[in-house]
Amino acid sequence: MKKIIVVKFGGSSLKNKDDLSKILSVVKMYEQPLVVVVSAVSGVTDRLMVALDNIRNLDVNGFLVSLNSIYQGFLEARNPELKARVYEIKDLLQGVRLIGQVPDFVYDRVLSHGERCSSLLLTQYFNQHGFDCEEALPEQFGLTTDGRFKEATVELEVSAGNLKKFFKADKNYVVPGFYGLSGGQMNLLGRGGSDYSATSIGYCLEAERVDLYKDVSGFMTCDPKRVRTVKPVKKLNYDEAAELSYFGARILHPTAVDPVRQKDIPLYIFNLGSFTAIDRPDTIISSNGAVAETVVKSLSFTDDLAVIRFKGSNVGRVPGLLGQIASTYGREGINIKSVVTSQTSINILISSQDVRRCQEITPKMKIAEVENVFYRTDISLIAAVGEGVLQKPGVAARIFSAVSRHGINVEMISAGASQVTIYFLVSLKDRNRALQAIHREFFEGEKHENGG
Are 426 and 408 in contact (CB under 8 A)? Predict the structure, then answer.
């Protein structure tokens, strides 16, 4: 019996009815059982989010008519079963409209609705066109989470026991991504979480591999919107892919790597628009730890960043001070991305979206040793990622020399938190020039084979 393959199609692959025939032609190429994980149709999750954000003024019936027309537009004839699925959230929307607020459990239930509509749509289309499959919902097969709303973590071992009992080895299934369940409540896996759904299912079923179909050609040496001369990255190891995703590359959900890493399951990324064959992915992510000729394999960046600087003549030596700051923010649900300390300052890196809340929380700490607290938001974090960046002499020097030659000030540097990443902060206005300077240093001019 051949092992199962998990195949995921994102919302960017579901824009119109022609996309369904493309997806069908791809899945028919596989000669072994599939679990097809699907996202909401392009734009639907945003529509659901806007509806909830404006719930007091929402025309529930008009909204559902509009949503139904989007899904029905993919089919050749009106489908009452699909319409019934779309309207399943009617009572929820009417209820929260009356109370004028959206509880977390309703938010996650409604926002995951687009995926459930997509899975039914795709199941019906596949069966009508000669690809036999069944729809399977996370509430049926038991994809179990830790219970956190909006950004849940999959409980892999519990889920694995559930999934192995549910899925039959000789059948094809279509599954909605983006959510799991805890105690009967639906929990979102974070925006873009269908990647995480796919890799978690791959872990649970010990899949041969997980294939992700997107509208981009896998990982590149940098964001092509910032650097015009980017090159494809054919191979990454798990750590490299995770770091690139964590530091801003939007190719992959940041949490998606961990499940496949644990079972050493290869992760293939395809561009559906330029797809040629199921054995020709744009990027392969696996345990292959080869060092590329350039050492640096890719550059990533994020502007969703702020620095809170706790200044004081002796803050770096006060026992428990960093723990107090971190635990205070943690209790408020604020994620600390990184910490850089010195004798006179503790620098906390957070999402820029959390600055206002931190400004409210921080004064309540009343830390005697802290003389001033500064907030900085006009910054960008750049990460240079590749196996060997910390081991091979001269890599860091080349990075910072390239930036320095263009008169760009590096405001903070960190290395060692990950064995495959050097990251640093620059002013937001200098971000593109810094990326271009480093890219020229490592990827332009000399011929090289990137990807290991």
Answer: yes
Which of 137-146, 291-300, 442-451 has the weakest average pLDDT? 442-451
For residues 289 and 351, is the Cβ–Cβ distance under 8 A?
Answer: no
Q: Do 403 and 315 touch, CB atoms closer than 8 A? A: no
Q: What torsion do the CA atoms of 315, 321, 323, 325 make, to the nearest 10 degrees? A: -80
Closest Cα to residue 290, out of 447, 441, 420? Answer: 420
Question: Phi/psi of residue 372, each to 5°?
Answer: -150, 150
**Closest CA relative to residue 171, chosen from 141, 214, 203:** 141
Q: If DSSP states are collapsed to H, E and C, what string results for 98-111?
A: HHCCCCHHHHHHHH
Contacts of 257 (CB under 8 A, 6+ apart): 199, 238, 241, 242, 245, 267, 285
Separation between Cα atoms, residue 117 and residue 81, nearest integer Å: 10
Q: Quick check: 447 pLDDT over 50?
A: no
337, amino acid identity? K
Residue 220 DSSP label = B
Burial class (CB in 10 A: 0-12, 13-18, 19+), 289: middle
Segment 47-58 mean pLDDT:
95
Q: What is the mean pLDDT of residues 153-178?
A: 96
**Assigned token pair, 130:** 């000669």
The CATH classification number of 5-215 equals: 3.40.1160.10
Q: What's the whole-number mean pLDDT along residues 256-275?
A: 94
Residue 81: what pLDDT?
Answer: 95
The CATH topology of domain 300-443 is: VC0802-like (3.30.2130)
Percent of the chain with pLDDT over 90: 74
> What's residue 446's pLDDT?
47
- Cα 45 from chain centroid (whole Å): 15
List C-alpha distances in Å: 244 to 113, 229, 233. Answer: 29, 19, 12
Its pTM stands at: 0.91
> What are the residue ranges spanned by the domains of the chain?
5-215, 300-443
What are the distances in angstroms from CA 304 to CA 188, 239, 301, 328, 350?
21, 21, 9, 21, 8
| Residue positions counted in the chain | 452
